[in-house]
Amino acid sequence: MSMFHEGNRELQDKYDGRAVADRIVDLVETSSFTDEFRDFVEAVPFFFLATAAGDNTDCSFKGGAPGFVRVTTPTQLVFPDYDGNRMYKSLGNIVKNPNVGLLFMKFGAEEGQGELYLRLRVSGVASVHDEHPELTNYHGAQRIVQVDVTHIFPNCPRYVPHMEQVAPSRHIPEAGTEQPTPAWKKVPPIAELL
Hints:
The chain is α+β, with helices and mostly antiparallel strands. It has helices at 6-14, 18-28, 35-43, 89-96, 188-191, and strands at residues 46-53, 56-63, 70-73, 76-81, 99-105, 119-129, 143-155. Helices cover 21% and strands 29% of the residues. A hairpin with a 2-residue loop joins strand 1 (46-53) and strand 2. The model has no long low-confidence stretch (mean pLDDT 88).
């Protein structure tokens, strides 16, 4: 499966980018996780998930404790779906169009500090599972999203800001602890429905 479609190629040709694009893909694009890519994905506490179905597009923040995304095979990863706002924007899009894009980022280093990349793009085909062997590995997860990878593409750190994480979210499900109720669930017109 090509990483580029007609629209990509049209602009690459218009702006004289096809040769560079093809060279970059030849050098860094893959369809399976290296040990380094797996370690990167499993170390980050969040990623961004892009989905689309028809006219409905969505980009969602997905967070958890480092390791909440697991690379289960060289061409597959899973992540938990925790309690949310019950709109199912991302998951609903996946049900209608399973093609997804995931963007993993690391903000704690700067270019030139030995970091070849601080962004990793993963494209694939997702599926939503109410029952899955990995579900027992995630306290508080309601279901598992599995992504079968089609492309993995590392990005350079050129525009990634250097930032430090102050603290993890206090809402990350953790065995033995009760999670605080999010403020939006206390709004009376919403609280009465929960």
